[in-house]
Amino acid sequence: MHRDQLLGILIALLIHAGFAFGHYLIPGGSGRKSADAEDVPTIAITPMPILAPEPPDPSEADALAEAEPADLSDLAPPPMQADTPAVVAPSAFQQKLQPPPPPNLGGPAGAITIPKGNFGAAAGTGLKGLFDLAALDQKPVPRFIAKPTYPYEMRRARVNGEVVIGLIVDAEGNVINPYIISSTNPAFEAEALRAILRWKFRPGKKSGVSVSTRNVQVPLVFNLATGA
């Protein structure tokens, strides 16, 4: 047993001695530290190329342009000049004056001329078989009476009136050439004439034949109480 213990101790010492002095026994062991230092890899740094400056951003360029002082030399006011009348060249377009209407041109459509006076003796001389009212065997009789329109101003003012109209009744019973004989207010005359032109008569007769009759007089009454 003592022998085995001594052998174990001897082996242990040899192992420890190998660890302690092994780098001296291995070739090149003494210069390991310098070799390891020389084996460290190195990195070569390539110089970066010089890049051209980037153009400014459009928004930055606009800001720089706005910041620059504007040249106001072109905005200087023109020198003052004396006021002189400008000569205007004649225009190629010239409006021609309208000639006056011919004297025989009638009035506008719908207009009513209000004749006054007793025209029964002369009016309707172109009618065939024109007789005076007193010479007839049978006088004209109304068969259709048109009611006149009451003038608005007279109705609002509560004014009554009367218009006496002279006319001719032809052989067909139509009203020809009505005219104003008298009126209580001129405001009623136009409506009276409009109404009488719509009247229809049974024509007067002479010897049993229908004839045209002059000097026929018709009174038209405007009365608010009756609504006429």
TrEMBL record:
Location(s) in or outside the cell = Cell inner membrane
GO terms, biological process: protein transport; transmembrane transport
UniProt cross-references to PROSITE patterns, sorted A to Z: TONB_CTD (PS52015)
Q: Which UniProt keywords apply?
A: Cell inner membrane, Cell membrane, Membrane, Protein transport, Transmembrane, Transmembrane helix, Transport
Start and end residues of each TonB C-terminal domain: 135-228
**Where does the record place the region Disordered?**
48-67
The chain's coiled-coil residues are: none
The way it spans or sits in the membrane comes to: Single-pass membrane protein
What residue ranges are annotated as transmembrane?
A: none
InterPro entries, sorted: TonB-dependent_transducer, TonB/TolA_C, TonB_C
Name one cellular component (GO) term: plasma membrane
Q: Where is the composition biased (Acidic residues)?
A: 57-67
Indicate the family of this protein.
Belongs to the TonB family.
Q: What is this protein called?
A: Energy transducer TonB
- Native organism is Termitidicoccus mucosus
Which taxonomic lineage does the organism of this UniProt entry have?
Answer: Bacteria, Pseudomonadati, Verrucomicrobiota, Opitutia, Opitutales
